[in-house]
Amino acid sequence: MESSTDNFYVYRYSLIKESQTDLFIHDLPSTKGSIVREAIFNDAEFSLRGTRYSFVGFSDVPYLSSTKEEESRYIVGKLAKLREAHVGEKVPGDIIERIADDWLPIVVVFDTQEQFIFVQKSWKFGGESLIKNALQQGLRSPILAKYNYRIFVEVKTEQSEFWSLVESHNKIYRLELKLISPNILNTNKKARELLEELQDIYGQDEVSMTLESESGSLDVPKDVVEDYIDYISEGEGQWALMTEGAHGGKKKHSSLSAPVTLDIESVSHEEGELQSEGQLELSTGQIAPERQSSDTRLVAELFEKTRALIRKEQND
Q1: Where does the record place the region Disordered (predicted)?
Q2: What is the CA radius of gyration of the chain?
Q3: What does the alpha-carbon distance between residue 152 and residue 150 come to, in Å, rounded to a whole number?
Q4: Exposure string over 286-307, b if 16+ CB within 10 A, otherwise e
Q5: How many CB atoms within 10 Å of residue 275?
Q6: C-alpha angle with apex 123: 164 to 88, nearest 5 degrees?
Q7: Among 249, 235, 299, residue whose Cα is nearest residue 107
Q8: Spatial separation of the C-alpha atoms in residues 219 and 216, rounded to whole Å
Q9: Under a CB-based contact definition with an 8 Å cutoff, are residues 52 and 75 in contact?
Q10: What is the pLDDT along the chain (316 residues), one digit of tens a residue?
């Protein structure tokens, strides 16, 4: 194994309580973010838009742990996507084509204390939006059934990208904001308090707001909008902006195109080894023996990166 750099998307998950319809609902765990355990263990499979996915080989990775809660802070495993592979099999006098399962895995780390999800970037697997939807789909039903909480997964984004777009375009036709109801304590205080007031009145999961100007003269005052963009950037919603295009017409920009990514300097398997490792875990249900040391190192680096992310949130 050689030292290399892996790129990880950063997501955040939020939990919104539903109106209780079942008497047999479990209490939340002491660390609220640990609720994801209900969905990711036992190699659970699920489908999204006709494609099968699976959470594979998840296990606790202790790091700097002094209590039981800290010991289970990080959970590491893989999200796998099923593709069909056309395989040519040699038989006497011919080659027979058959279709075989081909699971493509990417590394996923849950930080149950800060409710981050770190996901290995892979162009073969799909972009940040596909990963977001797959994670949310796989987590939602088991958690809702046991705890009566609905889970939302969003990409953590660079808020500076929003203001760069506003400042670099002459025409703004539409601004869309989607804000998830408050869940994470270290998000923007002003936006959180307003959403809490609305939730007390209406009981909403999220708030959507659209401002439009047919002529493209929409004003986006920073002192009014900044708190909401900050709130969204912390993984609590999405924004979309419609501006003039570079060669006429209109162009839509989205927070999904401005994800926060982390470069992790760690011991990494070659792609073929990673895929073989994932196939081994899928077929045996056991964690590949080579994973323990690399998972520990990965978590150690993410621990430091997480501290930096939180400091940045608190200082912005």
Answers
A1: 268-294
A2: 22
A3: 7
A4: ebbeebeebbebbbebbeebbe
A5: 17
A6: 165
A7: 299
A8: 9
A9: no
A10: 455 678 999 999 999 888 766 667 888 998 999 999 999 998 999 999 999 999 999 999 877 655 555 557 899 999 999 987 777 777 777 788 877 788 999 999 999 999 999 999 998 999 999 999 999 999 999 999 999 999 999 998 888 899 999 999 999 999 999 888 755 445 555 666 666 676 665 666 778 889 999 999 999 988 888 888 888 888 888 899 999 988 889 999 998 888 889 988 754 444 445 555 555 555 555 556 567 778 888 888 888 888 877 776 666 5
Three-class secondary structure of residue 196 per DSSP? helix
* Pairs from 42-51 (Cβ < 8 Å, separation ≥ 24): 43/281, 43/282, 43/285, 44/138, 44/142, 46/137, 46/138, 46/141, 47/137, 48/133, 48/134, 48/137, 48/138, 51/81, 51/82
Burial class (CB in 10 A: 0-12, 13-18, 19+), 91: exposed
3-state SS, residue 20: coil
Two structure tokens written together for 252 = 């839509």
pTM: 0.80
**Residue indicated by tokens 């036709």:** 173
Strands (E), the chain: 2-17, 45-48, 51-60, 74-91, 94-111, 116-120, 149-155, 172-180, 206-212, 237-244, 250-254, 261-268
- Measured CA to CA, the distance from residue 277 to residue 289 in angstroms comes to 9
Query: 102 - beta bridge partners?
Result: 83
How is residue 7 written in tokens? 């790129």
Residue 223, helix vs strand vs coil:
helix
Give me 205's structure tokens.
């999961």
Spatial distance between the Cα atoms of 174 and 22, rounded to a whole number of angstroms = 41
Inter-residue long-range contacts of 26-29, CB under 8 Å, 24+ positions, other chains counted? 26/146, 26/147, 27/147, 28/147, 28/149
Q: Six-digit token pair at 294?
A: 């690399």
